[in-house]
Specification:
The chain is mainly β and 206 residues long. It has five helices and 14 strands. Its EC number is 1.5.1.-.
């Protein structure tokens, strides 16, 4: 079956298969702070790492359905140039989902989701207590992606990682242990996956 993106219904599919075919996708649970000091927390599944020297991560943020058209996360990053990536574990799946609920800009999603805050070393936004990993990030640049038929566009946010917090309980022999963290990943539709098993493939030499 050959599908043209955005034309899936014309080809007999009720839902767009694009995101269901790019899987599993890590979830960026992004915490920010407005210029006025209001905390914001929201999950994004268009996320990955793009460089390790320097350490660069990227998050794709959709346009907002509200009149101003910009999500609070993006607005805060543009204003302050800072944000935190919090890794979502299986244990925090419900809180992560709760923080995805649309809310006014003056609502603190940490409080709404019943989450505690941890301070950062280099930046003002708070970290999510209980998350296995946190990246303290500064904005590198934003890129406006192509507009859709409605004239809206996603924004790609690229951030440089200034520091990494890792809970020592999730380290084994000095290495991050994914089976201990059990990170949550996004699939298509309303589906998620959790990492409970890993396999090793040693890269062959030339």
């Amino acid at each position: 079956m050959f599908i043209i993106p955005g034309k899936h219904q014309e080809q007999g599919l009720s839902y767009n298969p694009f995101k269901a075919c790019v899987l599993p996708r890590p979830i960026a649970w992004i915490s920010t702070q407005s210029a006025e000091g209001i905390c914001n927390l929201a999950p994004y599944s268009f996320f990955n790492a793009f460089s390790d020297d320097p350490a660069i991560i990227g998050v794709g943020i959709a346009p907002d359905s509200r009149e101003e058209g910009v999500k609070d996360t993006l607005q805060n990053i543009l204003e302050t140039k800072e944000f935190v990536f919090n890794l979502v574990s299986w244990e925090q799946r419900t809180a992560m989902n709760e923080s995805s609920k649309p809310a006014p800009a003056d609502v603190d999603e940490f409080e709404a989701a019943g989450l505690e805050k941890l301070s950062c070393n280099f930046i003002k936004p708070y970290r999510v207590k209980g998350a296995p990993v946190h990246f303290e990030c500064k904005l590198f640049k934003t890129v406006d992606l192509p507009e859709n038929d409605a004239g809206e566009h996603y924004t790609l946010v690229l951030g440089e990682v200034l520091g990494i917090h890792i809970e020592e309980a999730y380290l084994t022999d000095g290495m991050v242990d994914a089976t201990k963290m059990q990170p949550l990943a996004r699939l298509g539709y309303q589906d998620y996956a959790v990492v409970k098993e890993v396999v090793q493939l040693v890269r062959p030499t030339a």
